[in-house]
Amino acid sequence: MLHALKLLMPALFPSWRFFDVIAPSPRIEVAMVDTPALGEPDEDAWRTCRPTPARLGPMDRIVSLFWNPQWNETLYLATCAERLMQDAGEHPGREIRRRLRRDLASQRDESQAAEEPRAAYFRFRLVFVSRQGERLRRDVAYVSPAYPTVDPQDR
Question: Whose CA is closest to 152, among 107, 105, 117?
Answer without folding.
Answer: 105
